[in-house]
Amino acid sequence: MNETTKRTLPPGFSVPKQETERLLIERLQNSKNDEDYFRWLLFVVAFYRGIEKVDSARALLQMFLDANPDNDKKSHCHLALGQIATDEQRFETALHHFLTALKLSPSRTKVSYVLHNNTGYCLNQLARHQEAEQHCRLALAIDSLRPSAYRNLGVSLQGQGDQKSAAWAFVESAKADSSDQRAYHLLSNLIEKYPDLRIQCPWVDSALNPSNDPLPDRYLV
Fold it and tell me: Is 24 inside any structural domain?
């Protein structure tokens, strides 16, 4: 049996009393190798995000970034830090983390998709729609079957005044996942502002039949 290695935690980080949290921290500290440690670190970070202890999540991620040279793991840490900043609507900070992660050239295509898509989302929030379009299209070049990048592409195109193309992107998003009502609401709002689109683009009607309640907004889709 392999001997486990006791891992360090950030300064001032105490083992908690809450049972679930305590067990996760123990698994993290007693992980057998770097891969096992990183896997449990991400579990702990997700747990802390869920209970709104984001300072603890940030501390763990930053400690790992400072100590680990692996670019794939570092890119994943920047992705998580960017998601935390996005949740807090600190879009400049989130954008910095996502772009830093992209510069590390992550090997997993799913991570690259999410980073480009999240970058596009943040750029849209900052009204930098042309840049957002570029990242959304890069995400779609990686995976054209997922709805989120189509939706963010639509927002970027609408922000640039290209209403027909925005309508197309929202329809494609709705087609990619008909249970996700966010694209439907964006398309409905667009048509409410520009009612002539129903005449110019009769195909929009195919996406105007909501079937489920709206889902909460997410950044990792």
Answer: no
Distances (CA, A) of 197 to 113, 158, 169, 203: 30, 13, 13, 10
What gap in Å lies between CA 120 and CA 185, rounded to an integer? 19
Task: Centre a 10 Å sphere on the Cβ of residue 93 and count the other Cβ atoms it contains.
Answer: 16
Contact 24, 44 (CB under 8 A): yes
The answer to whether 116 and 149 have CB atoms below 8 angstroms apart is yes
Please say whether the beta carbons of 21 and 60 come within 8 A: no
- Report yes or no: 106 and 71 within 8 Å, Cβ to Cβ: yes
Q: How far does Cα 30 stand from its chain's mean position?
A: 29
Model confidence over 152-204: pLDDT tens digits? Answer: 999 999 999 999 999 999 999 999 998 888 999 999 999 999 999 999 998 88
User: DSSP label at 204?
Assistant: G
Position 74 in a domain: yes
User: What is the CATH classification number for the domain harbouring 148?
Assistant: 1.25.40.10
The structural domain count of the chain equals 1
- Residue pLDDT, tens place only, 106-127: 999 999 999 999 999 999 999 9
| Cβ proximity of 215 and 180 under 8 Å | yes
Per the structure block, which two tokens stand in for 217?
Answer: 């907004």
User: Is the pLDDT score of 12 beyond 70?
Assistant: no
For every residue of 6-27, DSSP letters joined together read: PPP--TT-PPPSSHHHHHHHHH
